[in-house]
Amino acid sequence: MRSIMQDSERSVSLITKSFTGIGSEFMSSGKVFAFMFLTGIALSTPAHADNLTEAMRSSTVPVVCLVSPSNIETGSGFLVADGKHVVTNRHVIACTGEGGKVGIMAAHGELMQAAVLWQSAAKDLAVLRVEKSPGGQAVAFAARSAMDERDKVIVAGYPGAALRSTRDFGRVSFSEGIISKFTELDSPEGTVRHIQITAPVNPGNSGGPLFNDMGQVVGINVQKALTAVLVVDPNAPQGIRQERVPLGEGVAWAILSDELLVELERLHLPYYVSRSKPNPIAAELGRQPVLFTLIGISMLLAITAIGLLANRRSRNVIKDAVTRGQSGLTKRVAAPAKARLKPVLRGMTGPYAGTAVPLDSEQIAIGRDASLCQLVLPADATDVGRRHCTVRWDKATRFFWLEDCWTTNGTFLDSGERIDSATPRQLKPGERFYLSKREYQFEVALETES
User: Fold this and answer.
1) Residue 229 · residue 218 · CB < 8 Å
2) Which of 70, 134, 308, 319 is deepest in the core (most CB within 10 A)?
3) pLDDT at 177 over 50
4) Model confidence over 308-360: pLDDT tens digits?
5) What's the domain count of the chain?
6) Is the torsion defined by CA of 351, 354, 358, 363 positive or negative?
């Protein structure tokens, strides 16, 4: 087993070129139902898939470690916290121990120098910091409690073998597989938990995110099964050189997300994590919300049509209306579809300022304890309780509900009114609240889906 840090000579050459060039540039009811159902399947599913893919792509960045133009190592990373921090493998940025410099490529093509904020040889993890956001969005995580064997996973990153020209550098490659098993690796500092996966992982994928099919990071790609063999090469010293070849097919590893989350907590870097697995219907709804909406509307229209057609008077009214208005109907222009709104929780001040967290079917708990909350505030925010409050969206009433969890310092509305503990308080879209003091202020809102 070998680390997947190194790239091929061709990849190094292409990256060198990129490095030096950066910055230069209504019928019957049955027909209605069938039409809308099939249209929903044909149109909404790819659209959502495209949105999910784009979110994963924007969170993944190339990491470059440069000692000299002829000594470059590359890997992958992903954005966390405020979008100005990048997680990768420690071995990807190993050149900094020899005086090398590390950088990441922003979405617009600029190579931005980064500083090493934290690193661990035992966990083979590192957190980098850049002065300004490279333009992507920070990831959300899923903890071990939200995973099972045979779950689908997606590897994202920049494998060196995929670089055929300079145009390929900076383009994310994806591969898919499943979780084979959960395993551990002993180190001098303790046991490090890993995930064994079947998704293809190659040199250059090191440090990149391993996503589940909801777009949440479940691990950090780190190794594939490789072994070293000797091959005859007349151009090599003594005519022999060492080459790495796969030891097995469909065998690779990622560091479990929980190993990183505890370090982000120590670094006081905020993150969002899901600690429970959604039921199958909720999971499918999360993946294909437009499709489920169309199916629901289609079923409602079908039931309504059946009821109308069962009534003779209603049938006559409809027939007469169609006969009299046939010419007018053919000239009408369909009204544009209403934009779909999604409920979100916006950070207005504090660590989550500028961040919008989706509010789906489950409530979100906010506080300092990562084992009790999905939205975790820094450990030194002592004015905030371990589990301070919860926020949820009620789709039926289209209101948000805020509940204080018996905290000492309280949860307040924007007006300064303290809400009663354990008594849910109704909020309208656009209303704000804060935890203990206005330093930790949030807003509930409805945003137009892109």
Assistant:
1) no
2) 134
3) yes
4) 665 655 556 556 655 665 555 455 555 556 678 899 999 999 999 988 899 87
5) 2
6) positive
424 CB-near residues (< 8 Å, 6+ apart): 401, 402, 403
d(CA 223, CA 206): 7
CA–CA separation, 450 vs 435, rounded Å? 30
Q: Which range marks the domain in which residue 350 is found?
A: 339-448
Instruction: Evaluate the CA torsion angle 304, 310, 315, 316 in order and state its sign.
Output: negative
Closest CA to 137 of 185, 66, 82: 82
Q: Which residue among 332, 353, 368 closes a domain?
A: 332
Residue 275 makes CB contacts below 8 A (sequence gap 6+) with: 142, 143, 145, 146, 371, 374
**Cβ neighbours of 196 (radius 10 Å):** 18
pLDDT at 377: 93
Question: How far is the C-alpha of 216 from the C-alpha of 235, rounded, in Å?
Answer: 46
CATH of the domain at 349: 2.60.200.20
Which domain-ending residue is among 276, 306, 332? 332
Residues 147 and 51 in one domain: yes
Same domain, 68 and 95: yes
211 and 110 both lie in a single domain: yes
pLDDT band for 219, please (50, 70, 90 cuts): very high
Q: Is the pLDDT of residue 124 over 90?
A: yes
Mean pLDDT lowest among 90-94, 183-187, 224-228: 224-228
Does 187 share its domain with 289? yes
As a whole number, mean pLDDT of residues 52-80 equals 91
- List all residues 6 or more positions away from 445 whose beta carbon is below 8 Å from its beta carbon: 343, 344, 345, 346, 356, 429, 430
Do both 405 and 287 map to the same domain? Answer: no
In this structure, the answer to whether residues 355 and 326 fall within a common structural domain is no
**Greater model confidence, 163 or 248:** 163
Report the mean per-residue pLDDT for the chain.
81
- Residue 219 CA to residue 275 CA, distance in Å, equals 14
Co-location of 348 and 202 in the same domain: no
Asked if 230 and 285 sit in the same domain, the reply is: yes
Distances (CA, A) of 209 to 51, 173, 257, 347: 17, 11, 10, 25
Q: What is the CA radius of gyration of the chain?
A: 26
